[in-house]
Amino acid sequence: TGAWKDRPLPVDGIDNFLNRGLVYQNPLVYWFNHYHEPNYSDRQYEIHDNALVVGGGLASLDVVKILMIETVQRVLKQRGHEVSMFTLDRSIHKVLDDLGYTLDSLGLKGCVLCYRRGAADMPLSPLPAETAEQKEKSRAVSQKILDNFQNKYLFRFEPFLVPVDKIVDGDRLGGLVFQKTKLENGKVIAIPNTETEFNSPLTISSIGSLPDPIPGIPSVGSVFKIVDSKTCQIEGYDNVYALGNAVTGRGNIAESQKHGKKVSLEVMEAQLDWLEDDLKQLLRDQEAIIDENVNQIIKKINIEKPMPDQVIKSILDRTKKLQEKAGYDGHYANWVKKHLPLRLEDMLEK
């Protein structure tokens, strides 16, 4: 099932301001991927400069990139520069440098990403982190990934902060109150009397996703409850297993795919060994069925009498009608260009 539902931001009463200064990452990313489409009719979002992002994983980097692309693109357009999203995606820093601008000269502050740990602790690295040496390499990679992102997209980063309260501006969320943190034995500890306010017209929560609860499936905390970490067998079931971030609680897609493959092999190893003879017999039976099917197909194909002309004409006429309905005129390259998604038109021209 995956984990697609946003993890609630842990601040009392914060969801009372949903879509009134507070936005969660999943609907925001969906909007960004679709709002340019002519038939898009879902919720619209207004992107503000100096937006506040609470996060720390790869998804939060996608969010800050979206915010920076939207704000910079809008201001550049106001100054007569039509710059595509794809160009800005490659490097906002390079675009501004080529045009002779800085964020400050454009009147922009850029968004800020707040994380409860340090940059090296961000779950960004794809490297394994089991041994002490691997952990250090993984931390160095995470730090480098964040540095590269900041250099390209020019957002601000504030480490060792955890949200503890909200700032209310009329009927809207006006920002968050944070407390400084420290790490003790790998755990995040909030430091008393270190509150600091971050005022912002837009706060995006990007602290991960949760699996949607399923009636009858037990859970512990925010993930499904399992009895075996290797096969990830769901507690109470002999033949139900969970994969990826529905078990790990980590939102990295590549990591979830890797976990899914590993668990699948473990399940096959644990459950299918005793079926080896039956499996061989099953394969032999399938081969026999396939052979028979192939023979039947060959018999039907190798008919002495060709297909009647009227049947061929009927097929061609129906094909032509379907092509006309799709606006296809027989020139595939032209049809692709005409029906290209809006955001890809600029790339095709280049």
Observed structural traits:
350 residues, alpha/beta, five-stranded parallel sheet, four-stranded antiparallel sheet, 11 helices, 13 strands, globular
Give the number of helices.
Answer: 11
How does the overall form come out from the CA principal axes?
A: globular
- Largest sheet composition: 5 strands, parallel
Class computed from helices, strands and strand pairing: alpha/beta
Radius of gyration: 27 Å
Poorly predicted runs of 5 or more residues = none
User: How would you spell out the order of helices and strands?
Assistant: EEHEHHHEHEEEEEEEEEHHHHHH
Distance between the termini: 39 Å
Average of per-residue pLDDT values? 89
Number of β-strand runs = 13
- Read across the widest sheet, the strand sequence of neighbours is 2-10-3-4-5
What portion of residues is helical? 40-55%
Strand content: 15-25%
Describe, in short, the structure shown.
With 350 residues, the chain is an alpha/beta fold. The chain has helices at 25-34, 58-78, 85-90, 92-99, 132-153, 245-248, 253-272, 276-301, 309-325, 332-338, 342-349, and strands spanning 5-6, 22-24, 52-54, 112-114, 156-158, 161-169, 172-184, 187-190, 196-199, 203-205, 209-210, 219-220, 223-224. It starts with a strand and ends with a helix.
Describe this structure in words.
- The chain is α/β, with parallel strands linked by helices and 350 residues long.
- It has 11 helices and 13 strands.
- The chain has helices at 25-34, 58-78, 85-90, 92-99, 132-153, 245-248, 253-272, 276-301, 309-325, 332-338, 342-349, and strands spanning 5-6, 22-24, 52-54, 112-114, 156-158, 161-169, 172-184, 187-190, 196-199, 203-205, 209-210, 219-220, 223-224.
- The strands form 4 sheets. Strands 2-10-3-4-5 form a 5-stranded parallel beta sheet.
- Helix 1 (25-34) crosses helix 2.
- The two termini are 39 Å apart.
